[in-house]
């Protein structure tokens, strides 16, 4: 229901301008494509009528304005459903003019979004409006990421496209788009690759090797002993660390948004450092890009000839747990996996190691 009120406004020249006040706002009658609360009628009264004729003139003009007000109110409310649709259409059009890449940048969270953002800017250097997003364009971006010229591994391309799709899904829920394009375009396939991990012997070498960043060293060993991701370690606060009935961390996974209670060992707890209170961060701030340089030098100092990223410490935890005899269901729960299939990748690594071990003993006849 649109309410229309006839109002007056004093202007220069001893005149009073008559206008209509709409509530709620309606599409501008002038066709500007915007919403408005006012419509000036171009009808003016004498502020101080000097004689009988000016008074009569005021009465006549007010009657005309009142009739316009009644007609406008009737027209708007007779077409109330259409007016609501028109308002919604204008709001959608307004949102559609916003830049999707800017939206992605402001709403990104985990560090893999940084790489996705770089590729989005390279794909659409002039920007990318929400109104430009179509199923065809999404497929083009998927092909862009999968193109061998990008020098991306298939799994990296998949992760970046998944982050792109997640942003599409979020923007749809927030009303930026009328269609959830994330459901229209298939994801890239994950390739089962060999995951790098460290043996217990290699971890021991890292204990003795020099690392330029004590923060990184403690974070890495915490990951190797708990399976925690980089994104969950850097945001870890002391109020999430519990010491009653053993040591544990109560936190919300940055990636899955699931609330987790993770039991940790006494040794893992020791890597947290000096106990503090409240919402103080456990570890000093360190950027992911900075950590990569320190990690590479640390790995080299330990004489390890593997291409190790921080995430490999999580792989290490899963693999060593399975090698030690922990059942796959428990490992899956400790890692916070949504399903057992994800954890089975580590079981294959252990099976391969067992097979290689079995082949090492050969008798010569």
What keyword list fits this structure?
hpI Integrase, Chain A; 6 strands; 14 helices; elongated
What can you see in these coordinates?
The chain has helices spanning 52-78, 80-96, 100-107, 112-123, 135-146, 154-173, 200-208, 214-226, 230-234, 266-270, 288-301, 312-323, 328-335, 340-358; strands at residues 3-11, 15-27, 35-46, 241-242, 247-252, 259-264. The chain is of the alpha+beta class and 365 residues long. The chain folds into three domains: 3-93, no CATH class; 99-183; 200-358, Intergrase catalytic core (hpI Integrase, Chain A, Orthogonal Bundle). A three-stranded antiparallel beta sheet has the order 1-2-3. A three-stranded antiparallel beta sheet has the order 4-5-6.
List the helices and strands and how they pair.
Blueprint: E1 3-11, E2 15-27, E3 35-46, H1 52-78, H2 80-96, H3 100-107, H4 112-123, H5 135-146, H6 154-173, H7 200-208, H8 214-226, H9 230-234, E4 241-242, E5 247-252, E6 259-264, H10 266-270, H11 288-301, H12 312-323, H13 328-335, H14 340-358
Antiparallel strand pairs: 1-2, 2-3, 4-5, 5-6
Number of domains: 3
| CATH superfamily heading of the largest domain | Intergrase catalytic core
CATH architecture term of the largest domain: Orthogonal Bundle
Poorly predicted parts: none
Could you tell me the strand content as a percent range? 5-15%
Biggest sheet layout: 3 strands, antiparallel
Order of H and E elements: EEEHHHHHHHHHEEEHHHHH
Share of residues in helices: 40-55%
Give the termini distance in whole angstroms.
Answer: 97 Å
Strand order of the largest sheet: 1-2-3
CATH first level of the largest domain: Mainly Alpha
Overall spatial form: elongated
| Rg, Cα atoms, Å | 33 Å
Tally of strands: 6
